[in-house]
Amino acid sequence: MVHWTAEEKQLITSIWAKVNVEECGAEALARLLIVYPWTQRFFSSFGNLSSPTAIIGNPKVRAHGKKVLTSFGEAIKNLDNIKATYSKLSELHCEKLHVDPENFRLLGDILIIVLAAHFTKDFSPACQAVWQKLVTVVAHALARRYH
Amino acid sequence: RMFCAHPQTKTYFPHFDLSKGSDQIRGHGKKVAGALGTAVKNIDNLSQALSELSNLHAYNLRVDPPHFALQILAQSLQVVLAVHMGKEYSPEVHAAVDKFLSAVAAVLSEKYR
Questions:
Q1: More exposed terminus of chain A, fewer Cβ within 10 Å: N or C?
Q2: 3-state helix, strand, coil in chain A (%, to 5)
Q3: Complex confidence, ipTM
Q4: A1 part of a folded domain
């Protein structure tokens, strides 16, 4: 089980409280598709992904980004039991979606950059460290049920 | 930031004072940034421009595993850029910088084996 200090939990929740899940999720997913274009392979049904502008404006990308980050919020609500929280999603990503877990790490890193650009100076080194830990834990939990 | 978020990277600097704001961290950070500046100026010829550094990383420093560890530094660099540039660190800028840092890491790892 992952151990979170009281200070770490505080850094996570205080940042999260100010996050617009819809905007942030949309941006994180859009950036994933732009910065690592090969990830578009999982979204062939999303329509126009032909340019950064198209990706950013794509309503399916926005909706899915919101879904993904909302799920992230579940992890934050259950910091002491992230593995269990993501058990079903892990199976889904393996059995139905066939996503290489490396992509979870990529999305996690992108989320951190989105938060950094949004919060700028408030995204302190301590914040970065805790959130880096969080995205790693989430990525591991999502990869855990792979077989 | 990298030492804070990824403590395992400190293992490469046992000879440094790693306390926050130390002269050694500032000095070394400046060195790294300087090398990246050189890389930017020689972006179409990274292999040649970074040849010495490539040798250094392969034969002396042997940062391990090469690509992964350099990727950790790349992430911290991007966070700093994002913190400073805010909205101006757009998806397009982000993509270009990420691609650039990956290319630099690849060149630095070229001679590992």
A1: C
A2: 80, 0, 20
A3: 0.83
A4: no
Expressed as residue numbers, the domain containing A48 is 6-143
Q: What are the b/e assignments for B31-70, b being 16+ CB within 10 Å?
A: eeeebeeebeeeeeebeebbeebbeebbeeeebeebeebb
Whether pLDDT at B108 is above 70: yes
Instruction: Residue B91: list chain A partners with CB under 8 A.
Output: 27, 30-31, 34-35, 52, 55-56
- Which pLDDT belongs to residue B87? 95
Asked if B95 and A35 come within 8 Å (Cβ–Cβ), the reply is yes
Is the full-model pTM beyond 0.95?
no
Cα–Cα distance measured from residue A132 to residue A125, given in angstroms and rounded to the nearest whole number? 10
> Each residue of A72-103: pLDDT tens digit?
999 999 999 999 999 999 999 988 888 888 89
Quick one: closest CA in B to A130, which residue? B5
